């Protein structure tokens, strides 16, 4: 029996093409997914990686071998696949490795209506089925039809955010040679927004920089272009364009926590008293601001399947993560960076001040950003931190996701193992930059010892 524990992650399938992921595995996964969700059809999309079309086709073979039809939407951002799953009310599969380097690929799965498929909601069952080598169904084959969803996706997003009253804006968009280069032109067509494109050519080798805006080095080109052109804002998308990062008119990055708070306030204005989800790594400013605007904040684990499940359970109207994933009830509780970007631009266009002033009220604390450490034994290092800080007076420990340590002065940090890479991730927040640096260095000295 093949051990697939290194490929089936907490909420997706991901690995190195040709070593961990190949057409045979993907075909078996398609068959297992079809058995999990049943008919009548599965919608499949893929990103611009060289390996994606072939893997998507192999998955479709597995699905149709079970007598289930396939709706192939071709090139798509991940949120466009979620849109198709919601609009068509079909389970879906998106072939992408998001921000990972070119040699990787993977599959994000969802049930009809973009409902998540994670370890506890079907992914473990799919893995067990693949490992067991369950044979194909003995019956008629399903058929594959093609359907272009880009125009419908763009039109739907524009119904959710009204930019008709916006002042004209000039923005720079860095697509990172990812799927934003495919979706941005359609979404922004006809809006009062002048877009300067950067790296819109679809290229899964990522020739200009990694399509991972969470790493500050990948924002440098966009920041320089915003300053050079005098643009009102910059927007950076990751490889599958489900995340967006915002740059203000000074070329400074706006934290995803500040964007979460800004969008939450806009959504609460439409739905007073609504529930807002935030993961445990977002700034503590987020729940503060949600409460100040009459909302109910709910804290959850990191990861899209956990967020979506909590949104369904609570009826939340919006959710945000520190990694710039933003989830909307009106988008089938799925994450869409494009919709978050439209909200930010609408808020900016509704008033005359610059983006830096608009977002200042939503950024109350200093933060380290995510700091990654490669260590031999992740749990051993987490245990060392727990032993060190757990012995101190007034310190609170929380193990909802990794280890969160709250200090008496209001500062806190979270240390957790990555769900997709062999890393420990550290996030620190405190009252000012000096306090962040001191706490960061103290924790890293133990983690990297």
From TrEMBL:
Keywords: Isomerase, Magnesium, Metal-binding, Phosphoprotein. CDD domains: PMM_PGM. Residues 7-125, 152-251, 259-365 form the Alpha-D-phosphohexomutase alpha/beta/alpha domain. Residues 370-444 form the Alpha-D-phosphohexomutase C-terminal domain. This is Phosphomannomutase/phosphoglucomutase. GO terms for biological process: carbohydrate metabolic process. Its cofactor is Mg(2+). It holds the Pfam family PGM_PMM_IV. Belongs to the phosphohexose mutase family. It comes from the Bacteria. GO terms for molecular function: intramolecular phosphotransferase activity; metal ion binding.
């Amino acid at each position: 029996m093949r051990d697939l524990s290194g490929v089936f992650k907490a909420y997706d399938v991901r690995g190195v093409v040709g070593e961990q992921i190949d057409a045979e595995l993907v075909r078996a996964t398609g068959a297992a997914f079809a058995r999990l969700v049943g008919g009548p059809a599965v919608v499949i999309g893929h990103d611009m990686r060289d390996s994606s079309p072939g893997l998507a086709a192999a998955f479709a073979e597995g699905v149709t071998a079970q007598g289930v039809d396939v709706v192939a939407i071709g090139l798509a951002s991940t949120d466009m696949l979620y849109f198709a799953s919601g609009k068509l009310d079909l389970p879906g599969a998106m072939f992408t490795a998001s921000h990972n380097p070119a040699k990787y690929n993977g599959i994000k799965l969802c049930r009809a209506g973009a409902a998540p498929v994670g370890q506890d909601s079907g992914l473990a069952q799919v893995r067990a089925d693949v490992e067991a080598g369950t044979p194909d169904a003995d019956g008629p084959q399903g058929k594959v039809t093609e359907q272009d969803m880009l125009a419908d996706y763009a039109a739907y997003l524009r119904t959710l955010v009204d930019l008709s009253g916006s002042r004209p804006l000039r923005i720079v968009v860095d697509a990172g040679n990812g799927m934003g280069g495919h979706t941005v032109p359609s979404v922004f067509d006809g809006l009062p927004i002048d877009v300067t494109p950067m790296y819109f050519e679809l290229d899964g080798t990522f020739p200009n920089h990694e399509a991972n805006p969470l790493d500050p080095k990948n924002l440098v080109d966009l920041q320089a272009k915003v300053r050079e052109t005098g643009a009102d804002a910059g927007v950076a998308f990751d490889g599958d364009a489900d995340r967006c990062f915002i740059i203000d008119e000074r070329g400074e990055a706006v934290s995803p926590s500040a964007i979460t708070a800004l969008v939450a306030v806009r959504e609460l204005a439409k739905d007073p008293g609504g529930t807002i989800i935030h993961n445990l790594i977002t700034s503590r400013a987020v729940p503060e601001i949600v409460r100040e605007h009459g909302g109910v904040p709910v804290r959850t684990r990191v990861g899209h399947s956990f967020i979506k499940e909590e949104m369904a359970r609570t009826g939340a109207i919006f959710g945000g993560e520190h990694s710039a994933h933003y989830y909307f009830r009106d988008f089938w509780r799925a994450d869409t960076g494009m919709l978050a970007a439209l909200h930010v631009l609408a808020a900016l266009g509704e008033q005359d001040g610059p983006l830096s002033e608009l977002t200042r009220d939503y950024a109350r604390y200093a933060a380290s950003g995510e700091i990654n450490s490669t260590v031999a034994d992740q749990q051993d290092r987490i245990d060392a931190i727990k032993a060190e800080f757990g012995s101190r007076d007034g310190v609170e420990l929380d193990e909802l996701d990794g280890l969160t340590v709250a200090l008496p002065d209001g500062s806190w940090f979270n240390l957790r193992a990555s769900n997709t890479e062999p890393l420990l991730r550290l996030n620190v927040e405190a009252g000012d930059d000096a306090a962040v640096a001191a706490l960061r260095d103290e924790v890293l000295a133990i983690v990297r010892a």
